[in-house]
Amino acid sequence: MATYDYLIVGAGLFGAVVANRLKEKGKKVFVIDKRKHIAGNIYTENVNGINVHKYGAHIFHTNNRQVWNFVNKFAEFNRYTNSPVANYKGEIYSLPFNMYTFNRMWGCITPEDAYRKIEAQKKESGITTPRNLEEQAISLVGKEIYEKLVKEYTEKQWGRSCKDLPAFIIKRLPVRFTYDNNYFNALYQGIPVGGYTSLVEKMLDGISVELNTDFLTDREYFSKLADKIIFTGPIDAYFEYAFGALEYRSLNFETEILDTDNYQGNAVVNYTSKEVPFTRIIEHKWFEFGKDSNGNDLTGTVITREYTKEWAKGDEPYYPVNDEKNRVLFEKYLAKASEEKNVVFGGRLGEYKYYDMDKVIERALSTAELLCSNQ
Ligand SMILES: Cc1cc2nc3c(=O)[nH]c(=O)nc-3n(C[C@H](O)[C@H](O)[C@H](O)COP(=O)(O)OP(=O)(O)OC[C@H]3O[C@@H](n4cnc5c(N)ncnc54)[C@H](O)[C@@H]3O)c2cc1C
What we know:
The protein is built from twelve helices and 16 strands. It is α/β, with parallel strands linked by helices. It has a seven-stranded mixed beta sheet with strand order 7-6-12-13-14-11-15. The model has no long low-confidence stretch (mean pLDDT about 95). Flavin-adenine dinucleotide binds near residues 13 and 56.
């Protein structure tokens, strides 16, 4: 007899939500994670009162009321609205492209002015069937915005020329003819007060969790602990890279604690020129308006420079590479996964898919629901 109904490998968002729901349904659940902390990539660490997003900036946003109600059971969300700015060689532009951007770029005052300017540039490009990302972007926003705000940033992000990237990566580019800097046009948006780690901690309340524990180092032992396993680690690692490694884009984070109270005046500043080696700087305190939980101003600041790089085995995997080669490889792993009757693969690594947090929660809620209805 196994001790638990479910062993959940991974205490990230997917694992924590499934664990929470299964426990609520009366199941005996055990969670392990190979890292020394819970919360996976949404982990935040308190540094001098500032919640630092250790694996990149995370802004919660969703149109799904069920997901919003669900997360609000575990945390109070502040009214943070993502309004990043772009720095191109010292010129500051609002993102996503909106009337502030067009005013700064061309002096346009009215939506009509801006619309005409963009349409003229699109027409001038003469592109009808875009063959790559560069042509796709120019056909959507014209040459000037492409050159200052898209081209070099995208090339840093993907490590290759926009001419060599497929057009589908940017099916759409958000262009707004309003004075609205809200990046995510979602119904609900915010940052959990006190950070994401505390939110996940509450999801895992009353559940046994063991950290610094890698399932793959002794899978035979761990498999005997439970009737079913939910695996949220990399699917190719689970199968010992039988068909080869799935590829990712990886990131390097360079974090600094600074004496100043205000380094850049905004949580997220994208550096869109190739002269700057990093893609963006995050100033973490602005996710919570520079205040502590009592509304007092925080002193000092913490910033993180984010660099993207090619992934090599052993690096932290971040963004799945959406190309044909990796799609075919993933299909092979998926076929193998369907033979594992007592293992469910989930989350961004188990499904080799970029998921925003709300989508991860949706998937986790439906996975838990399905598991319980099948019994
Ligand atoms: C840079 C960046 C920024 C992002 N920003 C946003 C944002 O602003 N808004 C948004 O909605 N989403 C954002 N996301 C997406 C968000 O990070 C994911 O939706 C979420 O973290 C996925 O959770 P997960 O549980 O699937 O994966 P993870 O958080 O990766 O959790 C998987 C866990 O499994 C553990 N694990 C793996 N293998 C093993 C093993 N063998 N044994 C034990 N444990 C194991 C890992 O240590 C990890 O803790 C961003 C993603 C990135 C990369």
